[in-house]
Amino acid sequence: MFNKIILSLSIIALIFINNTGQLSAHEFWIEPDAPSGDMQLKMFAHVRVGQNFKGPEQYYIPDDIQKIKIYNPDSSYELKKTIGDYPIFNEPAKSPGLQILSYQSTPYKLTYVTFEKFEKFIRNVGLDPVLEEHKKRGLPMAGFTELYIRYGKALLTRGNTSGQDKKLGFKIELIAQINPYEFDQSKSNGMMPIKLVWNDQPLKNAQIAVFQKTENGALKSKIFTNGDGIAELPVSIGQTYMLNSVQMTEEIPKSGAVWKSHWASLTFTITAKQ
Question: CA-based angle 62:143:15, to the nearest 5?
């Protein structure tokens, strides 16, 4: 009995190390094994943290997750999991159509040893004014802490392709304006409109990082929202895309952090309308 307890604790420790080892890496996404399929095909999807469509799969750790939920054209339901479950999404579809897999993390802490690392991150996500605000607030140039929270979505289909992506109420959220599994090249001119929402309002003039999956990682690019919070994404049939956008809010130093970053991701595969 004692040996079994030790073994269980060791497994939990290994899962914890795997989940937290790359939490500060730049991308977080939900990656389905099969974007489309019939109703008999379960929805397997890994939660990953890494870069360029490469990163270890995360196990289910309750303390890491605030909410995981699935939306379909008829209903929505929250998932109840057991510690160590893998993959985190491993569910049958309850009704046909577009399925939205969603994940909201709990806040994590990250301490910047140098200001240079913070500056590199801020410039990479297109939030340069934060650097000047950091100095105006009189914040330390090293040894300061940031909280960060992740909001992930993935779109896939089971049974048929009907349905639309929609706003789920995340603080920051990417929303596909047309169904990527009913993509009509002739009507779209090869462009997928993406809406970026911040605090339930369209976010204008904001950067969205784009990662197009390849055998060797990802092709990277950037798009930007217009005055209505809409960005036009050039896409190709059969390709998988992961989008990522970040916003920062001020934290009160006595809370133990001076900034909080909010990460949105959206993953889907472009399929021609039948």
Answer: 25
Contacts (Cβ under 8 Å, ≥6 apart) of 143: 111, 112, 113
- φ, ψ of residue 220 to 5 degrees: the values are -110, 145
Burial of 63 from C-beta contacts in 10 A (0-12 / 13-18 / 19+): exposed
Query: In this model, does residue 152 exceed pLDDT 80?
Result: yes
Nearest to residue 154, comparing CAs of 235, 46, 233? Answer: 46
Q: 252 phi and psi, to 5 degrees?
A: -80, 125
For the chain, the 3-state helix, strand and coil shares in percent, each to the nearest 5, are 20, 45, 40
The DSSP symbol for 8 reads: H
Of the candidates 17, 21, 50, 44, the one whose C-alpha atom is nearest the C-alpha of residue 32 is 44
Query: Rounded to whole angstroms, what are the CA distances from 129 to 20, 96, 147, 158?
Result: 29, 45, 18, 43
User: What are 224's two structure tokens?
Assistant: 């930007």
Tens digits of residue pLDDT in 31-72: 999 999 999 999 999 999 998 898 999 999 999 999 999 999
Token pair listed for 172: 């920051």
Q: Token digits for 186?
A: 């002739």
**Phi-psi sector, 112: left (phi>0), alpha (psi -120 to 50), beta:** beta
Domain boundaries, the chain: 2-269
Strand runs (DSSP E) across 76-189, as ranges?
A: 76-78, 89-91, 97-105, 108-112, 144-158, 172-176
Give the pTM. Answer: 0.91
Tokens read off for 203: 């976010």
Q: How far apart are CA 115 and CA 274, in angstroms?
A: 52
Determine the 3-state secondary structure of 166 from DSSP.
coil
